[in-house]
Amino acid sequence: MKQAQLDLLSTSSEETQQIGIRLGELAEAGDVFLLVGTLGAGKTCLTQGITWGLGIDDYALSPSFVIMRELAGRLPLYHLDLFRLERSDEIEDLGLDDYLYGSGVCVVEWADRGFALLPAENLTIEIGFRDDTERLLRFKPHGKRYQGLLSELKRLPFGSGKNNKVCNLL
Prior knowledge:
By secondary structure, this protein is of the alpha/beta class. The chain has one domain (6-169): P-loop containing nucleotide triphosphate hydrolases (Rossmann fold), CATH 3.40.50. It contains five helices and eight strands. It has helices spanning 13-26, 43-53, 88-92, 97-100, 144-155, and strands spanning 6-10, 32-36, 68-71, 77-81, 105-109, 122-129, 135-142, 168-169. Strands 3-4-5-2-6-7-1-8 form an eight-stranded mixed sheet. Helix 1 (13-26) crosses helix 2.
């Protein structure tokens, strides 16, 4: 059975962060979000929103040079970045299982560098450029938990203002 995906269009970094906030608000212990996209697509921006949605006041920075940052909020956030790693054995040697299968929320940037080593049940989020200002965020659930999460995400309003929706469902 093909699992439903969700496509959202964001026209600003604030909209991408707002999507992340909603995702963080819905997050549960053990959730794994795998982010895929080219440099500058908005992976860290989305992670910033997830961070704030988890009630974390810190500003999420890309952990490219340290590989992993842990932040404390409603749930711990394990923010991993595989950008600098080129081989699966480098990723395997890091011993990330405590984070990937732990009691917090795990967000992995550049997840495509280690798909084979990451949990099969996850929410994969592909972020791509549509033009200079628009990003397409494609949410692909892998597992029942993430199908339910997408159903909840579809029901939530985004942003504020007259139509209470800053991003567009595609």
